[in-house]
Amino acid sequence: MPTSNTPIDINQSIHPFVMVIFGATGDLTARKLMPALYNLLANGILPDNFLVVGFARRSLSHDQFRSMMKEAVVKYSKDQNINYRILLKLTNNLYYQQGFFEEITPYKEVVKHLLAFDKDRGACITRFFYLAAPPVNYPSILKNLLQSKLSEGCGQGSGRWTRVLIEKPFGKDMETAKKLEEQLSNTFTEKQIYRIDHYLAKEIVQNILAFRFANSIFENIWNKDHIDNIQISLMEAGGVGERGAFYEGVGVLKDVVQNHLMAMLAFTAMEQPKKLDVESIRTERVKVLQKIRRLTPGEIKANVVRGQYSSGALNGHKIHAYREEKNVDSASQTETFAALKLFIDNPRWQGIPIYLRTGKRMAKSVARISVQFKKVHNALFQNLPPDVERSHHDVLTFRIHPRPGISLQMLAKEPGLGFSLKNVKMDFSYENVFGMQTFDSYERLLLDSMIGDQTLFATNAGFNATWSLVTDILNVWGKESTPKFPNYKPGSWGPHEADLLIKKDGRYWLLH
Length: 512
Ligand code: BG6
Known about the structure:
Residues 20-207 form the Glucose-6-phosphate dehydrogenase NAD-binding domain. Pathway: Carbohydrate degradation; pentose phosphate pathway; D-ribulose 5-phosphate from D-glucose 6-phosphate (oxidative stage): step 1/3. Catalyzes the oxidation of glucose 6-phosphate to 6-phosphogluconolactone. Keywords: Carbohydrate metabolism, Glucose metabolism, NADP, Oxidoreductase. By secondary structure, this protein is an alpha/beta fold. Helices cover 38% and strands 19% of the residues. An eight-stranded mixed sheet has the order 8-11-12-7-13-14-15-16, sandwiched between helices. The longest helix is centred in the C-terminal third of the chain and has 20 residues, at 460-479. The chain is globular. The two termini are 35 Å apart. 42% of the residues are buried. Bound molecules: 6-O-phosphono-beta-D-glucopyranose. 6-O-phosphono-beta-D-glucopyranose (BG6) binds at residues 236, 255-256, 367.
């Protein structure tokens, strides 16, 4: 992150590079990584001198891999008018290495390939290893990166020339996360490790810091005395689709609560960092995560709701239940929905509930953070009509999507005689103000890793804090009798118990 108002000159900072993507035939590479590389290239940000090696099990020629990636860019790029000259430039730089993650031979092939690339350029080219494979393969990949000496770069014995980018889920509980971390830190130094949580790189999530600390209005009331509750939602209309094999046994808690929801929570609740630099921002993010109160088994039963979608019909189309999705067990217990209530034990937030809610097959795709301020009962405006009283006023919302922006809902006087009040909204939208010039989060993360800025990457300490919380929940669930799944309809906002969770506190979900 820049420390002042001066934007970074990106072109000056990105040097020729090689990126080896493990799991190159998977969903993430097609949906996110290739479109991001294409967009960076189309915007003149990537140097001409780069090489991407796709590494996966499937047997493919370089050309087959290139056409696969070409299709992916056309299908998934946000750019509707693909520039085929640029796309060709990208695909010409792609190579494929078939191999099983646990066998050393294909890594040795990659070594040869990269050394030839270095020789050709007459320099040690920076190497990125992107772990986009199913996480069970991470231990084998890391082991073989070390054994083949790929992790050392072009043989100068210095880690300066290599970086590793690692996708979540980072382990499957506290214990496996610790083991992975141990292996990672035996292979790379902390400066070389980029743990990905793409919510940290969402423009609007970062903007929470600017909003809170660059404006003098809100920071003074950003605390338990003025805020009633915070609601963080990541709702998705889509189901698990083609990702059943990945999702089975992972579930929403590990897929998005442990990371994305916690990223949103951290930026919303953290204290002001000393500076806008990597150390200060990461330190404050971690500190607040460490202050989230651990839940007792009793609290987990009362304050954490899980769900799984059933089959149903939406707009005349049959929707499969989660248990009917491809590669999903027909008696699966994997949760596709979770709602939970948390507290942060520090002077700023003591006693203020933070409600998190996320699920697949929801009524709409919406990701947002809403901060609801306490209602002030002013003698001037007593006995408000019930619809005004119940309306969501005094709510500040950070919209991650759709329509990224910030809005403030408040009461205003309706024109005319008397003092009739109406709920109105002040709205800032990125698109209206800045056009659509913001980086997609994967573009941003790739760029940051290339310029060596770790600010928007997760830390081991942060993951430890969130894994402790999630592992407590998983342990209690593991001991409970089989959940009554499926328990919510596609196109709804989750199971009824999620409504009760907040209703029993005399509150309601702001998104409904
Ligand atoms: C991914 C999860 O990390 O985040 C997906 O694996 C989820 O299951 C996705 O759909 C949500 O991200 P976004 O940016 O589309 O809101």
